Amino acid sequence: MYNNMKKFPFKGKKVIIFDLDGTIVRLSADWNSLKNMIEENYVEIYGERGEFNRISAYLNDIVDKKDEMNLKKFFNIIKRYELENIKETQPIEETLFFIKNKEKFGVEKGTKLAILSLNTRTTILESLKLVSLMEQIDYIIGREDVRKWKPNPEGLFKIQDHYKIKKEEMIFFGDLQNDIQTGERAGIDTFFIDDLINLVKIYKKNRNI
Fold this sequence. Notes:
The structure is a single chain. The chain has two domains: 15-27 and 90-206, 3-Layer(aba) Sandwich (Rossmann fold), CATH 3.40.50.1000; 31-84. Helix content is 45%, strand content 12%. The protein contains eight helices and seven strands. It has a five-stranded parallel β-sheet. It has a two-stranded antiparallel ribbon with strand order 2-3.
C-alpha cells in the first residue's frame, strides 16, 4: 500500500527493498533510445511492429511467444546498452547515507537490504561496486531473474519467498509511479524514495552533517 507518512514503519521490517536507477544511483542512459533499439530488433526478428510503449511490454510479448532464446538476446542488448556509460553512474547520496546508517533511522539491527530493478543483474552489480555498496546489499532481483516485470509484483513475491517472511515484514522504495503500483499490487508498504531522501536531509541538517 502506498503510504505518505513522514515516519516510516520500519519497526518489525525484516527486509527493505530498493529500486536501483533513480533510487540508489542515477544511471547515464537514454531509455528512449534503448526502447527504439529494442523495437528495431523486435521488427527484425518477428517481422512485425510491436508498437509497445515500454521496454517491458516488448519483453512480455516475447515471453507470451515462449521464445526464451530471443528473450535472452534482448536481455543482452539491454545489458550492453546499460553498461556503455556505467562509469558515469552517479550516487544518490542521501540513499547511500541511509543504507550505511539505517539503524539511526529506526531500522532494526539485522534487517536485510534487497534490490528489485528493471536493470540487468550485471548493471546492478557494477553500480553497487561503483558506490561501494556491495557488502550492504544482501539479495538482488534484476531484469533476467523474473519473467513478469514491474508493475507486476512477481519480483517482490520472489524476494518474499527467498526470505520466507510475511508481507508486513517488507518495505519497498522506488522513484516512479510504476514502483508504487508494484508495491500496491504486492500489498506491502511502499514509498517514493523522495520521502526517504527528505528524511535524511532533515536528519543531516539537524546534526550539521
